[in-house]
Amino acid sequence: MSRSQGIPQSIHDGDWTRRDWLFGGAGLGGTALGLRGLSAGQSVTSSGAALGRAKSVIVMFLGGGPPQHETWDPKPQASEEVRGAFGAIASKTPGVFVGELMPRTAQLTDKIAVLRAMVTNDNAHSSSGYQMMTGVPHIPLNAESAISKPPNLSPHWGAMAKYVDQQFGALPQAITLPNRIANMGVIPWPGQTGGVLGPQYDPWLLTCDPSKADFKIPDLALPKEVTERRLDKRLALLKEVNRRADRVADSSAVARLKRETQQAIGLLSRSKSGSVFDLSQESDATRDRYGRTRWAQSVLLARRLVEAGVSLVQINWAKVENEPNGGSWDTHDKHNDLLKRYLMPWMDQAYSALLTDLSDRGLLDETLVLWVGEFGHTPKFNTRAGRDHWGHCFSIALAGGGVQGGVVHGESDDRAAYPVSGRVEPRDLMATVFHCLGYSPDTELHDTTGRPLPISRGRVIDQIL
């Protein structure tokens, strides 16, 4: 991987070779369907760390890029043009300070591990986001409005979670909500699908607004003309057709179709799957604790989904009507105003509510919660009172799922511009996520042509486990 002059080396021994780039990012054609076998599981990673036992992952993806200065890496001693308008406050962890606009989260840092030296070296939303969600750098870097095409077809972390889980219950094993991430709302970022693993591993996209009083999932309801009795008759007929088909066909494609059919039946039948989406089952106090916005109620819904057995749920920052850049964290203008008015308060409330809720329910130890964006923001403000894109050093946070709380790994310079120590990359994050789920990063997946690829070429971040 190309590196900017003066940036410290990462925790890796060497850079990516040309073969690494091609192997990790290339997408070859193919139409073969079905599951492929995994390599034999390992009980420890190459670093010697015991594999984790987390059951699920919740990804809070703050599209547009949350600024490191006003969140996890404040610089109170820096000049105002770097520091910004907001100060730092003490957290529950002695000696650790966070931005003053996240007071609720500050009281929960004993549950959180902060990474202050995450690097993509990519300043474009689309390509840096691709790297964060797949663990593979986009080719080329800094490719704004990039689309999903070879060689950039690495699978989304939800697709990989779906692949290694291989359990097909009533609910999909990977779900994205409440909207897909897209530039200008119409150009989806690459890295949000199954990619080379095939479309059968695409996370289920749930476009919704759980904050609405009449919220429901239309696709989970039977058509008015189809009664439960009529559905049962159709299922009996389907069962007989499948029984006869089994005599003449035995292929991965048939097996996949049967699994997907069973999942669809589970979603439509009288099962717990339908009630998972019914937020009216939550108390008003709980819903108020998260906040009544589309974003906050999506976070609450994510908790219900992992509680019901979904392996990975990604909550993308919900669009806000009539706000700059759709209300995202892309604060090129009016940075301070947008942070103070809704970005930070909404995030702080929902994030802290989720961690507290999971902890109270005894679910935090088995649920890994990621707080991420595609990059951070520039050390200095621009001429429009905003901060621009910055992938050379930014902060993310992890909690639960075997992660050690009260830890800060990595250090940035006095402007939060470049790493000083503890540099990590998205491939290391990916390795760590799947380590927590119980899979070594070198666990092999297979694309649609049968070609093997590892979950990640990164290293597990042992310092936070």
How would you summarize this macromolecular structure in one to three sentences?
By secondary structure, this protein is of the alpha/beta class. The protein has helices at residues 18-25, 80-83, 103-106, 125-134, 157-165, 228-248, 252-268, 272-276, 284-290, 294-307, 335-360, 426-436; strands at 56-61, 88-90, 97-99, 112-118, 174-177, 182-183, 187-188, 204-205, 312-316, 367-372, 376-377, 389-390, 394-399, 407-409, 411-412, 419-421, 444-446, 452-454. 29% of the residues lie in helices and 14% in strands.
Number of β-strand runs? 18
CATH class of the largest domain: Alpha Beta
Number of helices: 12
**Would you tell me which CATH topology of the largest domain applies?**
Alkaline Phosphatase, subunit A
Pairing-aware structural class of the strands and helices? alpha/beta
Provide the low-confidence segments as ranges: 1-44
By CATH, the architecture of the largest domain is named 3-Layer(aba) Sandwich
What is the global morphology? globular
Mean pLDDT: 87
Tell me the β content.
5-15%
| Name of the CATH homologous superfamily of the largest domain | Alkaline Phosphatase, subunit A
Describe the strand arrangement of the main beta sheet, using strand numbers.
8-5-9-1-10-13-4-14
**Main sheet makeup:** 8 strands, mixed
Helix content: 25-40%
Radius of gyration over all CA atoms, rounded: 22 Å
